[in-house]
Design goal:
alpha+beta, four-stranded antiparallel sheet, single chain, Immunoglobulin-like
């Protein structure tokens, strides 16, 4: 009896823990099961799926640039759905890093020394019974040439760099052509120039010199540098001008500057440009920053001041104004129709992407929309990620951009059409049925184990025995029904509710009543048979 009691106790405890884990943490219906059931529903309702026929991959040669590449692919026909594509590398030298829903394959090369090889990977779609093997060539490519860009403290850009003693300048170079080998060697005369840091040089004496850059395959570019003495007679300045580095033109310092732009600076004494050493500081670096090359970067909107200090201690203060360049984004995904309207099928969840223009400097926004018409999911950065239409009709999405200084508002028209392929109701019915059926099975077994475990304990008093039995048995069921629903309130995509706990207790109690009645009937039958035997 003791062994039976221990065994039933262990089984009951184990089943209780298993019930809590499965009913709490397991999703009601796995995606694989849902796909099979939905496929059966489609077949029954004669709904045809657009079959995937081909996947075209851009097979141009790709060169080892940082050992990572982006390969674009297109599917045919373009309206094929539920692709569930997998890209499997067959070559041990590479691995497929990830595939996004926009038709891009990210491939990371593992072999960093191979000069040229052809790699193979397989494209598979289990939903469409599709398989294709693709070959892509990988290799190295050398630069076509190199060009220098020089920017001195006064932001004079030219092939002939003119600068001054003790005024540092820096160099940047551009590799010409598509190249994977970007190593560059730079030679200079250290009797004229002192290298301060990477690509930064300090002229140390008057004269002419040159800096030569050479690529790994021998392509060269040389820029002459003319070093002049400083003007030591500058006692004051009464104006500064900012230099637009992109357009190489002067800008009035009283203008409004756009966030993210960077300008050089020139000093003027009585309308005459002067060259001398100076120090420049920003009153508020959060709004206007001064970099190591004395360039002014406008970081955030507002008004602040910069101070220019000459070697003799003279100070000149200039107020600068900064603003954002606000522009409404366009809807990049999904594509708009010919009327520039977003056209969606009811119940069909789609990826949603806003693209801001390149010159837009502020990308935070808020949305107003009819939540009875649309469900919009956002990513961790607050950007729209997916959109699901909830009912047929016309609506709009209102986008507001407000940086605290200016506001921009735009409307995007949305049309939700009836979707003959909308199977959300079937999915919901399937999920509810499987969920409730699972609860029923677990609580029926739980009730059965609890009854037979408690019946192992003998209590002589009939009334006390049944009171204890009912209290302990009900407590086990109530505890299990409550704890599973309570834990679900903390789980993503799950919810705990009193209705489910009540339904669990109904399964539990109904099973208990049926088992107890069955036990009593069996006892009664055995008793009758015993009485009849004694009578005979």
């Amino acid at each position: 009896m003791e062994n039976k009691k221990l065994l039933l106790g262990v089984i009951l405890f184990g089943w209780t823990v298993l019930t809590i884990l499965i009913l709490t943490f397991a999703m009601p219906v796995s995606k694989k099961i849902q796909r099979k059931i939905i496929a059966a529903v489609r077949k029954k309702r004669n709904i045809e799926i657009v079959k995937l026929e081909d996947v075209n991959v851009n097979l141009r040669e790709m060169y080892l640039s940082n050992q990572r590449y982006v390969v674009k692919y297109d599917v045919y026909p373009s309206d094929a759905k539920e692709l569930d594509l997998e890209f499997v590398a067959l070559d041990k030298n590479i691995k497929v890093e990830k595939t996004d829903k926009n038709g891009m394959i990210y491939i990371e090369a593992l072999d960093k020394n191979t000069m040229l090889y052809t790699s193979t990977f397989t494209i598979v779609s289990k939903n469409h019974n599709f398989k294709k093997i693709v070959e892509v060539n990988f290799g190295r490519k050398y630069p076509d040439g190199i060009e220098f860009n020089f920017i001195n403290k006064f932001n004079e850009l030219s092939n002939q760099l003119t600068t001054n003693v003790n005024i540092p300048f820096f160099t940047t170079y551009n590799i010409l052509g598509e190249s994977s080998e970007n190593q560059v060697e730079i030679d200079y005369d250290d009797s004229y120039l002192k290298k301060i840091s990477n690509n930064e040089y300090l002229p140390i004496k008057e004269g002419k010199t040159a800096i030569v850059a050479t690529t790994i395959n021998g392509k060269t570019s040389a820029i002459d540098v003319d070093i002049l003495e400083n003007d030591s007679s500058v006692e004051y300045i009464n104006a500064i001008k900012l230099i637009d580095l992109g357009n190489r033109c002067e800008v009035n310092s009283e203008s409004e500057f756009v966030v993210g732009s960077t300008y050089g600076i020139e000093l003027y004494q009585d309308d005459k440009k002067v060259v001398t050493n100076y120090r420049i500081e920003s009153e508020n670096p959060q709004k206007v920053r001064v970099n190591r090359y004395d360039q002014i970067n406008f970081a955030s909107p507002g008004i602040t001041k910069i101070k220019v200090t000459l070697p003799n201690g003279f100070e000149y203060i200039q107020e600068l104004k900064t603003k954002n360049h606000l522009e409404l984004p366009r809807i990049a995904e999904p594509q708009l129709n010919e009327n520039n309207t977003l056209e969606l099928l009811n119940g069909n969840e789609v990826n949603f992407t806003f693209n801001f223009p390149e010159n837009s400097t502020y990308h935070k926004y808020s949305l107003d929309y009819d939540r009875s018409m649309l469900y919009i999911a956002f990513d961790k950065d607050g950007n729209v990620a997916r959109i699901t239409p909830l009912k047929v009709g016309n609506t709009k999405i209102t986008l507001k951009i407000n940086d605290g200084y200016e506001q921009l508002v735009g409307d995007y028209e949305v049309v939700v059409l009836d979707n003959p392929y909308d199977l959300r109701k079937e999915k919901n019915k399937i999920s509810v049925f499987v969920n409730k059926f699972g609860h029923m099975i677990f609580f029926i077994i739980e009730a059965t184990l609890s009854i037979f475990f408690l019946k192992c304990f003998k209590v002589n008093n009939f009334v006390l025995r049944y009171i204890l039995f009912i209290v302990i048995h009900l407590s086990i069921g109530l505890f299990l029904a409550s704890i599973t629903e309570y834990i679900q309130t903390f789980m993503p995509n799950r919810r705990g509710c009193i209705e489910d706990a009540t339904l669990d207790m109904i399964f539990y109690m109904a099973t208990s009543i049926i088992i107890l009645i069955t036990i009593e009937i069996i006892k009664f039958i055995k008793y009758k048979k015993g009485v009849a035997y004694e009578h005979n």
